[in-house]
Amino acid sequence: MSPRIAVDRQPSQAGASINGDVLCVRAMLKAAKEATEFVRGCDRAALKRDEKLTMALTWLVGVIGRAAGDLSPRYRRRTSEIPWRYLADTSDRLRHQYLDVDRDLLWEIVTQRVPPLIPQLEKLLVRA
Questions:
Q1: pLDDT (tens digit, 9 = 90+) per residue, 57-110?
Q2: d(C-alpha 54, C-alpha 51), whole Å
Q3: Distances from the Cα of 30 to the Cα of 14, 33, 39, 80, 118, angstroms
Q4: Strand ranges (E), 2-116
Q5: What is the distance between the alpha carbons of residues 107 and 10, in angstroms, rounded to a whole number?
Q6: For 39-64, b where at least 16 C-beta lie within 10 A, e where not — what string?
Q7: Cystine design at 68: which of 26, 88, 94, 109 (Cβ 3.0–4.6 Å)?
Q8: Whole-model pTM above 0.90?
Q9: Helices 16-39 + 51-70 axis angle, to 10
Q10: How far apart are CA 106 and CA 5, in angstroms?
């Protein structure tokens, strides 16, 4: 089950969607930084040895994916330089079956895809 990002998007409030989008970007940035920190000094084999690390990284990647999926369509269109659909689908791709995580894919995501995402998300928050 993917984590759910709680964002209040009441349409009657002006700017509510934008505020919700900013909260989602902040959640993604926090999760991305934590995931990057968790693997600092680790190698791919650490995922095979450390179930807690695997679970923590899977959760954080899930937060990134869920928050990306929770962004408003308008925000995604305005910030199309970031692959939102890829991010939103990431946690689904990690799991082949119930509770079975593709650790090689998890390692690739956390070491190759997440680090470049951090400055992109920071840039979005500066513009917000």
A1: 999 999 999 999 999 999 999 999 999 999 999 877 887 666 788 899 999 999
A2: 5
A3: 26, 5, 15, 21, 9
A4: 95-97, 100-101
A5: 37
A6: beebeeebbeeeeebbeebbebbbbb
A7: 88
A8: no
A9: 160
A10: 21
